[in-house]
Amino acid sequence: MPAELSPVAPGVVRVSWTSDLQEQGLRASADEVRRVVESAFEDGSTRVETHVDPEDETAQRVATFAGLMREGVARGVSETSDRIVYARLADDVPVEDPKGFRSLLNSFLPRKRAISQLLVRSTDGRVLLCQLTYKRDLDLPGGVVEVGESPQLAVEREVEEELALTITAGPLLLTDWLPPWGGWDDAICLVFDGGEVDPGVVDTIVRQEREIRSAGFYTLAEVQEKCADFTARRIESALRNLPGAGGRPGPSYTESGRGLPT
């Protein structure tokens, strides 16, 4: 059975196919879907999309091999499950073009969230921490890296936006992997050296009230008491990696603040 088109909105159609088509093999079924997609564009459509069952890995591969880009997951559109949305626009760069092929790969390859944080110490040896509005425990200043943004510049931007402090991010001290937790997907946390500043800098802080409840310097004992355990471990590892910290350096890569077994 060939793939079929159905109208969705002006200029927008949806392509669908059955398992019978997929039984003909990946290449044959993808070629058929691609043919139908091209025919839709020839007839004046500007967008062709398809909704694929997340459990149907073959259908996902058919959509990809047909040149449809993964756009995301539409939740609750089916009585039984969500649906992965794939689509192609009439003016998309052809998949045969290297740029078009890279765009296709980029649409479905895994993406990892990155968080940049700054380890700022006072001249009396304490660590700058923030009380966030959406969590109880304290954390280092910083935030999520935007798409296409340098992690090092991202942490400078976040600190300026949230605390009104202009601090240059120095060398990377630690890369910490954060597993999925509390509704968050996993992420990579990069801790940069923020150097030493006068303790009085806290008096110049202007909080972004939507995200920052308070900010101040804390001793290592207070870090262990007021931070989540994995945050405290991350800070301790980063402190050990400071230039001239003395003693044995910590690991440069940790998972949830813990070094890997050697």
Plain-language structure description:
With 262 residues, the chain is α+β, with helices and mostly antiparallel strands. It folds into 2 domains: 4-108, Gcn5-related N-acetyltransferase (GNAT) (Aminopeptidase, 3-Layer(aba) Sandwich); 113-259, Nucleoside Triphosphate Pyrophosphohydrolase (Alpha-Beta Complex). 28% of the residues lie in helices and 31% in strands. It contains 7 helices and 14 strands. α2 packs across α3. The radius of gyration is 25 Å and the shape is elongated. The mean pLDDT is 94.
Looking at this protein, list some descriptive labels.
single chain; about 260 residues; alpha+beta; Aminopeptidase; Nucleoside Triphosphate Pyrophosphohydrolase; six-stranded mixed beta sheet; 7 helices; 14 strands; about 30% helix; about 30% strand; elongated
Question: How is the topology of this model organized?
Answer:
Elements: E1 4-9, E2 12-16, H1 19-22, H2 26-42, E3 47-52, H3 57-65, E4 69-74, E5 83-89, H4 98-108, E6 113-122, E7 127-132, E8 138-139, E9 142-144, H5 151-163, E10 172-178, E11 187-197, E12 212-218, H6 220-226, H7 229-240, E13 253-255, E14 258-259
Parallel strand pairs: 2-3, 6-11, 10-13
Antiparallel strand pairs: 1-2, 3-5, 4-5, 6-9, 7-8, 7-12, 10-11, 13-14
Helix pairs in contact: 2-3
Predict the CATH topology of the largest domain: Nucleoside Triphosphate Pyrophosphohydrolase
The CATH level-2 architecture of the largest domain is identified as Alpha-Beta Complex
The overall average pLDDT, rounded, is 94
Number of helical segments? Answer: 7
Question: Could you name the CATH class of the largest domain?
Answer: Alpha Beta
**Helix amount, in percent?**
25-40%
For the record, the count of structural domains works out to 2
